[in-house]
Structure formats: C-alpha cells, structure tokens
Amino acid sequence: MSNQYLVRTTRRSGPLVEIFDRMERYYADHPRSPSAVRRPQLCRRGRTFVALLGRNLQSGIAGIGNTVEAALRAFDLQYLRALQPPPRKTKTLK
Measured between alpha carbons, how far is 2 from 47 in angstroms, rounded to an integer? Predict the structure, then answer.
C-alpha cells in the first residue's frame, strides 16, 4: 500500500492544494488545538487520511478519518488522551 505524504511535499498542485488549504483552514479555526501547535504529518491511504506525530502508528500519536478535518480532530483527541494520567486502580475492601 503506497502512502502519499501531503504535508512534506514541496510541489503543491491539483488535489494537494485543496488538502493543504483544508489543513490550514482547520489550524486557523482551531489555533490552540494540538494539531495546530504540533503540525502532525498528514498522509493519505486510499480514501483515509492519517495525521501522525511520531515515527509510526504504534509508537506515535495518530488520528484517522475519512476527511482531513476528521483526521485532525481525531489526532487532537488522541493527543489530549495521551497527556492524561492513567486511571488509578482502587482497592476494594472486603
């Protein structure tokens, strides 16, 4: 399966311009969001967009969606979830 990396490309023509514009619009609409601040890499796999911060899906933070905006929104949620401490285990008294 081939990846089309959209953010890191230097040539912006055709559909890439529209995708880049949608990313920039999302960042402008949500200027303090994790995606606007951290600017994750965006790639497209088939009809799915993946916003990724890190080396890969297993070790990084990723958002996956059917649109650019959905992927960036999912990334924001995953990023914020990664910052939360793990839930405390409570002991049950018997």
Answer: 12
Q: Which amino acid is at 63?
A: G
Order of strands across the sheet that contains 48-53 = 4-5, 41-45, 48-53, 61-65
Q: What is the pLDDT of residue 12?
A: 52
Residue 25 C-alpha from the chain's centroid: 15
Q: How far apart are CA 64 and CA 71, in angstroms?
A: 4
**Total-model pTM:** 0.77
* Residues in the chain, total: 94
Residue-wise pLDDT for 55-83, tens only, equals 999 999 999 999 999 999 999 999 999 98
